[in-house]
Structures
1.
Amino acid sequence: MSSNPFAIRAENVGKQYRLGTGQTSLRSFLSSWSNSRKGKASTKLFWALKGISFEARKGEALGIIGRNGAGKTTILKLLSKVTRPTTGDITLNGSFSSLIELGAGFHPDLTGRDNIYLNGAILGLTQKQIKDRFDEIVNFSELGRFIDMPVKRYSSGMYARLGFAVAAHVDPDILLVDEVLAVGDEGFQRKCYDFIHAFVKSGKTTVFVSHNLYVIEQLCDRVIWLDNGEIVMIDEPGQVLSAYMDRMNQQQMVSDNILESETEDLTLVRVSCVDEAGHEKTTFDSGEDVIIQAQYTASRPIHNPYFHFSIADAQGGPPLFHASMLVDGNTPPTIQGVGVIRCRFKALPLMPKVYQIWGEVFGGDRARILVKWQRMSLFQINAQDQAIGRGGVRHLRADAPIKVSYQWEWND
């Protein structure tokens, strides 16, 4: 660890929860309590966190990433003292504010004004501090017209705005943030992001949980990768995020699709990528030809079927490019029985990541759908030709889907 004094220290922290709907009667509660006292095992217990240890230095921005259910929010709830650890110890040096459950503690029958004073007091502000910051809180929330309205009449967005505004003006030493950049409309989200960015740059400590890896990369000094309640990796953002994305890509590649047809006339048995010899292949180099192979069974003669394939980023978004018989008119005259259709995409200039193959098949009249539009397969462009240069680790903003050659020039 650095000689810089720590702001947060977690030592062998574990958190156990009980699954189920809870105890419905005093008898069931006493029975459960008695069993736990006798040491009887329960199948309804699970560990959300399992013996994790880490430190956040003063002035550091620490990011936490992982899939849903990895334990990210559980860590923030433990740090913010919403709940207590089952095992281990957590130490915070300094005051803190939590942007986790925005508006927690608001009373629905009180006005926005009253709830500012109530929530501010819950977060540790004195009445004078709240009064001095009241106008700033209202202006930040953009709820001036509604500040004397009971919050039970607020929309969920208005409710969250006010909660963020109060929590943001506590002026803590440590800020705990959980995906609050989704609050309100785009303009308010930008305001929230600007506030968090300014807080991070002010030299105070931030713990930031997000699925937005671009934001994590930009804001954080170090990143913790959680999986199933355990720490997989702690390191600089570029190292952790690259390893995390590679793992996500590998997991995506094991998925398999069940292809759906709109008619019994035509069934796509399997769609996959193959090499020149027709052997299935899932990984290609950037600039290599990618051959898509569709194995079909036609129960009757089908005249002039129109096949369509598209390549899309596995993370979502519209297709990057298409091959469509509907456009080029190159249809097989007739297909019947068992057969194969292949489509070669030549010299694909794709960046290393996982890509989806989408497709559909139309009948000869171009109106009847034989196989509906759906994801049909996956393939991956490998990263062996993407060396890390002197500029550092792979930068997420530069991880665009299409790879083209470029060259820098400047005057010495």
2.
Amino acid sequence: MQSTGSRRGMPEMADTPAPAAPSAPPSAEELPLRPLRHHLALTIYWLANTLMWGVLLNIGVQSRLGDWFAETEKGYYLGLLGFSGAIIGTVAQIVAGAFSDRSVNRWGRRRPYMVVGSAVTIPALLLLGGSRSFWPFAGALMLVQLSTNVALGPFSALLPDTVNPREHGKASGFMGVARLAGDTGGLLLAGVLLSASAAVKRAGAAAVVAFHDQRMLLLSWIMSSFTVVALVLSCLTLKEQPLRRRPAASVRQIILGSFALKLHGNRDFYWLCLSRAVTNIGFYMFLGVLLFFFQDTLKDPAPEFAAVLIILVATVAAVATSIPSGTLSDRIGRRPMLFTAQFVMAAGALLFVLAQGRSLAIVAAIPAGFAYGIFTAVEWAFACNLLPPGESARYLGIWNASAVLPQALALPLGGVLGSAVAARHPGLGWRLDFALAAGCCLLGAYFLVHVRERARDAARG
């Protein structure tokens, strides 16, 4: 995101001023406390999105790359997909969010973008599932990145749009559980459907590839169907208050203004984004090479099953802490809980470095899962409390970029480093990736020191 300095050193657009923030509905502080059904309704579409990426990121993409490339090559192609998808997703989410902030559609600001994005996602998923070689697969995956983020940017703003800040931690906890459930469901789907039987493996590499061809298409139909159901339920359940008036701004001004970084008054928000981004580099580096770690380093006889088992154990631990920690953060504050999560996540990653077999990896997954549950529940609530009024979707697009853009660094860094080291020392590169993941968690904790928590972030008493 490029910008030029103003007289006060704050980044602004060079030749086009950012359009004025739209005239937003009443302040979130005026909203009533929401019943349980509202918090559950917010999670439906998020669950579908995380299920889809749980299939693709955890095993789906790695499995297909394993069909087409050797150990010394697949890390590079994983990096290419990660970098391209992260850039496309980030731009789409920020721009779509900025347009939704200014939408005067009578159906609401966010839901029309959810419909359009999902309508493109469905055929893109089917194209991906039907691909029989790398480049068609890569093109379909990029289209999925584009369309899902057009929907996800505006959708993310429904939480601050409809929930009182006193309940942001509670709502974020439910969203965290939905994310974990989606990741787990996607992982299980991919693990069960893409794990070739012993008979298929004995038939040779061509049989395994043909098996994955058929099962990937089935997965795409399942993901598409779930997306449609979640979209319909979300749009019928969640009600929005449309804007009455849209500020005068051209399409060009809105697009360029989407990337104007207004640091004045928002420094805490950007420090939090940086902390989250660095921590997520470690997370995606870990997730991106987990299957390779079991395949090439531990020589596990069932690497897909082992990867599913590890993430399942971590997810169960995370679910146990997500909602309680989100609710607790409404009372005692966000920052101390994020610090705790980042340090424990680092410790878990270091245990993976030392693992000599599946057993220690399972032990390491438990504290890492506890920490991740706290992190996912609290981080989003913290960000929502720091949003400037009237531009929540655009800023949440920037916020979500701190989860998407790390893929552009984590997958190339982890994949390229792992394959490069494996060329001389087979399997060692994936251990080094886990050590770097631990370092990223600690660096994220350092950046969090610079974030000041607002007094209204915690509803004490």
3.
Amino acid sequence: MRAFSLALRFLLELTLLAGLAISGARLADGLAGLLLAVGLPVVVAVVWGAFIAPRAQRRLRDPARLAVEILLFTTGAVALVAAGLAAAGIALGMVYGLSLGMMLGLGQRDEA
């Protein structure tokens, strides 16, 4: 169960980045859409790598890390809804909530 939890978490992180890219492309036309499609996931990946990732040099401690993580996933879910992909946004939020609950229950917050 622990391995499944970590694998799900990794897939959710990738889904967050893909969802932001798709949302960015759909929310604007032309160059602005391209910049959003590339820029949104890059910004989130940099924040994640700097403050949330297990090997981040400046990794935040909970509850700050949890707050940033929730903010990023909420942003991704809201972006999908705003881009007309409500089912995907709701699914992202719900699966993230389930994953977070599983990680808390298994004591894996420090591993992810």
